[in-house]
Amino acid sequence: MKKILFILCLLSLTKFTFGQEKRVISKIDSTKTPELVLIQELTVKAPIDSVWNAYTTKKGWENWAVPLAEVDLKVGGHIKTNYNEQGKIGDSTTIITHIINYVPKRLLTLQAEITDNFPEFMKDDAKDFFNVIYFDELENGDTNIKSFGIGYKNNPKYLSLMNYFIPANEKTLMKLIAYLEKKK
Questions:
Q1: Residue 182: which residues within 8 A CB-CB, separation 6 or more?
Q2: How much is the average pLDDT of 145-158?
Q3: H or E element, residue 7
Q4: What is the spatial distance between Cα 17 and Cα 15, in angstroms, rounded to a whole number?
Q5: 3-state secondary structure 98-136
Q6: pLDDT per residue as tens digits for the range 85-128
Q7: What's the rounded Cα separation, in Å, for the pair 46 and 184?
């Protein structure tokens, strides 16, 4: 069993999968706190302005993440999204993410409202969940994005939840890459 876990760890740490460079690197860190931190990092071949707009505008969100979005970019503002094309912002399938703070083109701190659509065990921990996203403009004009999902507990329920979040987030971030790199 240990041998299988070791091989799986090696495969997850490699930068190349089946001859292709892996564009989104995900890892779970639990070394500094009793909580899990989901770290996801990618570099996109696009200028910082385009990346920032993808995260902070209605048009940006609707071009890579969801069919419906509403953004009120300010401290205390929100990003409301809906994955249901037939839905509308404000219906029961709307996800509301609060903007806790931001530094333009550098940092965005978000906190999602936990609704009935989330697993029951997350509801007691809702106040602890944050997503801190750093944007770094590189010398060559590319942009590095590093996202920290904070507040997950280090227990089997949350570890199982990570099995869903990691591939789902990676798939969505690959859509971000495709959108931004197509714009060039």
A1: none
A2: 94
A3: helix 2-13
A4: 7
A5: EEEEEECCCEEEEEECCCCCCCHHHHCCHHHCEEEEEEE
A6: 999 999 999 999 999 999 999 999 999 998 887 888 898 888 99
A7: 7
